[in-house]
Design brief:
Elements (H helix, E strand, L loop, with lengths): L22 E6 L5 E7 L2 H8 L8 H9 L2 E6 L3 H15 L15 E5 L7 E4 L7 E4 L5 H14 L7 H10 L4 H4 L11
Antiparallel strand pairs: 1-2, 1-3, 4-5, 4-6
Length: about 190
């Protein structure tokens, strides 16, 4: 461990010990409970912010850093992998100092409703749709929409709402996205 002063924490990693790759880090208290989970494109650069002089830290950050007894990190291959691992660990450990991801409103998912008669692809923050398969989370909603746009071009998959699909099936006429060639759940002719 590095030498400490009254304005640093005793578990501060040695200089050069923290890798510069993308990753996810966890602060733990003396009992091993995870207090905070974060991600970084450059772990060394991000974690060095927590080990600045204590008096310079925001009050909440200072409280977390002084409550913690250790920090650990996991290197991953990309920022997207870091985002996914961070999300998974926040859900798993429910760290008291994390405020992001307390509900599912932060990052969107792409879901395919495999349990439906005609599977549908949607952008959603709801991860409890029965029979759905989820992909994500995505850091930006436009990334999900671009992915869905490419999927629709390659695969005949439904994009219309359940009510539009039901109406199309009853009438025998395709839904609006189906009329313009952007929905694979076209109504069957009677």
């Amino acid at each position: 461990m590095a030498r400490t002063s009254p304005d640093t924490v005793p578990y501060r990693p040695k200089a050069g010990e923290i890798p510069t790759q993308p990753g996810v880090y966890r602060f733990r208290d003396a009992t091993g409970r995870v207090l905070y989970v974060g991600k970084a494109q450059n772990l060394r650069a991000r974690l060095s912010n927590y080990f600045a002089p204590l008096r310079s830290l925001h009050e909440r950050t200072r409280r977390m850093v002084t409550t913690a007894a250790s920090v650990e990190w996991t290197v991953v291959g990309s920022d997207v992998e870091a985002l996914q691992l961070e999300y998974t660990w926040i859900k798993e450990f429910d760290p008291p100092f994390n405020v992001k991801f307390r509900d599912d409103k932060t990052y969107p998912f792409m879901a395919i409703t495999l349990a439906d008669e005609a599977p549908r692809v949607i952008v959603t923050r709801n991860t409890r749709i029965p029979g759905a398969r989820y992909f994500g989370p995505y850091p930006k909603i436009w990334a999900v929409r671009e992915t869905i746009e490419l999927m629709v071009k390659a695969f005949p998959i439904r994009t219309c709402s359940d009510s539009s699909y039901k109406k199309a099936m009853e009438s025998g006429r395709p839904c609006f996205p189906g009329q313009i060639g952007r929905c694979g759940g076209r109504a069957r002719t009677r």
